[in-house]
Design a protein that fits this description.
Oligomer: single chain
Number of helices: 12
Low-confidence stretches: 1-42, 450-454, 474-488
Structural class: alpha+beta
Shape: globular
Radius of gyration: 26 Å
């Protein structure tokens, strides 16, 4: 369970403005500058359509369950065979090349249908591409001195253990009347009644854009589910329809801190989540020491339970953050590990190692993804904002320095103007102001993505220079220092 949100209380004079009733309220005159440069600093995903996944429970008879089981096991064996072939052929991640090598064997030996025999090499190729990317990233990290550990994911062929089958719509599966689905198996078609969330069931009846599906098996309940991809058409979002701007800062002490331009802030505590994560870690350590078969089975169940717990918490937070007619600013966390330094190994204390473990475990990218798709469904947008110096820049006077965070604690104290505030709230305010600047660029250019014709370093410098002039309050410091530092 998530701890109840803590609503912040701030003085009325420390806000960006009143209600966002019109353009003047949305864009205070003291916050408008440099809009003619046309530099949009955010990474947008313009979502005219949104893809969601409908989870349908298959009510199989004993005979049908056996047919689906045989198909799933054959598909899994085909994946492992194809992975071995790809590994022996220089770890090839070319789907077309793999298909030529294994297609006839998959059809004759594993008795897969034509579409399934095409899906297998595509899935293996995608897995190998992902692993090759991780190898490249690991090699770069070793060269830069960020780690000494070598990624071993491609030391041997990837192995598939789950019972999953990828199905193509109108070929491997199709929906019939009376809430039934036709599924192709090794022994022919079967017609299976299904059940699910009413909203998903209604979408399946009327949505013209139904994509591929995947059969998954839940061991705990011995139940098969059909995960169906559905693409929903959404109306275009115009800048004038956006009446609320907010910024979201993520972390471990508080999983998320959100604030809007009316200075309404909510803190989502991570205390209960950290406590739960530590409990899982203790149980995992104990089971690993036993190293028995039953302990390994228990570890598998434990990992699934922990993953579902994290997803559930992220779903609850994202549901509260995604509000109608909003532009939600999220930190662009790409490369954050390279920009932040933390002690590890023997140099780190027990407390630091626990903090590193919690940070590595929690999926902030998943939280951002949930916010993004939930926002799209209710007529809002989420955008990624550069996260440079959001925790070091004073939103009141613009002074940027590492010294503004004494001992990297939760209290922010500007060494220039003396502004004191919770550090996570400072980050959320800076993100909200940068999101407002993006909204101005969107309004002036009519485009969600405009890139200046300059080098990457020059682009970063221009972007940070624009950010340096943003102020949360009209009462700015006379000793304003707004030039971004260069070592962060």
């Amino acid at each position: 369970m998530i701890a109840p949100p803590i609503k912040s209380t701030s003085a009325a004079s420390d806000t960006l403005g009143g209600a966002l009733a019109n353009e003047q309220d949305l864009f205070p005159t003291w916050l408008l500058f440099q809009t003619s440069t046309g530099i949009v600093v955010a990474e947008f995903v313009e979502a005219m359509n949104q893809v969601i996944t409908a989870k349908l429970k298959l009510n199989l008879t004993a005979e049908q369950k056996l047919a689906v089981r045989d198909t799933a096991l054959a598909y899994r064996d085909a994946l492992n065979y194809t992975a071995m072939v790809a590994f022996k052929n220089s770890k090839s991640s070319n789907g077309a090349k793999l298909q030529k090598l294994v297609y006839s064997h998959l059809r004759s030996e594993f008795r897969l249908g034509a579409q399934m025999a095409c899906n297998v090499p595509r899935q293996v190729a995608a897995t190998l591409k992902s692993l090759l990317t991780k190898v490249k990233q690991n090699n770069e990290a070793i060269k830069k001195g960020h780690t000494k550990k070598r990624f071993k994911g491609l030391d041997k062929a990837p192995r598939y253990a789950s019972r999953t089958v990828t199905l193509n719509y109108q070929r491997d599966y199709s929906f019939k009347s009376d809430q039934q689905v036709s599924i192709g198996t090794l022994n022919g078609r079967i017609f299976v009644p299904y059940e699910g969330w009413n909203k998903h069931l209604n979408l399946i009846k009327v949505c013209p854009n139904i994509g591929a599906a995947k059969i998954v098996y839940q061991r705990s309940s011995k139940t098969y589910y059909l995960m169906v991809s559905i693409e929903i058409e959404l109306p275009d979002i115009e800048p004038t329809s956006i009446t609320r701007i907010s910024g979201v800062d993520v972390g471990m002490r508080y999983l998320a801190v959100e604030t809007d331009l009316n200075n309404k802030s909510i803190f989502y505590s991570g205390k209960a989540s950290r406590h739960k994560a530590n409990q899982y870690q203790k149980a995992r350590r104990s089971l690993q020491r036993k190293d028995t078969r039953s302990a390994k089975r228990r570890l598998i169940a434990l990992s699934g339970r922990e993953r579902r717990f994290i997803a559930d918490v992220n779903h609850q937070i994202s549901k509260d953050i995604a509000q109608p007619n909003s532009l939600i600013g999220l930190e662009n966390l790409t490369g954050i590990r390279d920009r932040t330094k933390s002690k590890s190994g023997k140099k780190a204390s027990k407390k630091q190692r626990r903090a590193n473990r919690n940070k590595a475990k929690w999926s902030f990218a998943e939280l951002h993804g949930y916010i993004d798709y939930k926002a799209n469904l209710i007529g809002s947008l989420a955008t990624k904002i550069p996260a440079h110096y959001t925790s070091q820049s004073c939103p009141k006077c613009g002074h940027t320095s590492k010294a503004n965070r004494p001992n990297k604690g939760l209290m922010f104290r500007c060494e220039c103007c003396g502004n004191k505030l919770h550090a996570d709230l400072v980050g959320a305010r800076n993100i909200a102001m940068r999101t407002l600047l993006v909204r101005q660029d969107w309004t002036s250019t009519g485009s969600l993505s405009v890139s200046p014709d300059v080098s990457r370093n020059e682009t970063k410098a221009d972007i940070l220079q624009r950010f340096s002039g943003l102020r949360w309050s009209v009462d700015t410091s006379p000793h304003h220092i707004g030039t971004p530092i260069d070592d962060g």
